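Many introductory courses stop at the sequence. We go one step further.
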Amino acid sequence: MRSLQLKNARNRSSRGIATAESNRKSGPAGMVARFGLNGPWGWCRAGVALVAVIAPMVLLPAATGVSSAASPKAEYSPAADAGDFYTVGVNPYFSPRQLARLYRGLIVEIGHTLQKRAVFQTRSTFGKFQQALQDETFDVVLMQPYDYIEAADRGSYVALARMEAPLAGRFVTREDSSLRQVSDLEGMTLGLPPKSSAVAVLAHAKLLEARLDPHRDLTVRNFRNHASCLTALVLDAVDACVTAPEPLKWFDSRRKVPLRDFARTAEIPGCLFAVHVRVPGGERHRIRAAILRRSEDHSSSPTLSRQLPRFVTATDSDYDILRETVTLSRF
């Protein structure tokens, strides 16, 4: 019965996702209009659609088969007719190739733990990813905190594990830049991730705090994701970029270009993995254990695991501060 319910849920989702996403209007959704206490947060955005199927070989617990498929037009793949499986969604804050490299090991770990098919998904834009959350497409999903409190308050997702470090935007520039504080950005060009991203909201609040009007006092350019914003900075296409610690760490490890940060935004609780309420309680605990184990395991796959942030157990009450101090509205 459980297998049939899961399969029916995916079939409904796969039929509806194309229509839902094609009808979705462009533009940001659910942004912060008022900031309080520690302020807003984030880093999870943009990418091109990717579906990578990680399939544990049932009856062979020690072996996992991995297959993948990607299409420029494919936003969703229902993992076909293989029976019981789970979808694992990841915010499109990087390109598909980068996300696949970063999270493949974790998806394998989840698949081994559950002895089920695990389907890794992302979306081409943050707006489409938000729509997929509203459609309750994913069984397990890495989402930003504001998306979580909306989903949790709808009764569709519960918290599993959050990033241990709080989220905060970092203003970075080239080593030879004259920028020393946010007010120095007047008359310059600032790169940001997508407009509806949390880091962009953080940066907006910080600019206002420095008495800079982002529409008048400087030029703001929104890029597809964190990597493209940082690349534009290296290429001297912008004077500064606002990103988050994890994307910056990933970028620094691959491009040996000296960058320095000159300001930081306020902090809030980190991005988190959440699970849909349709997933049984016992399996929720096993998924959480797999996430925590993988984030601490640097020996099994150093190339992948060293880039994963550390996750700790999350509870819904960890995010009450966001419910108490912000009002969500169109940005």
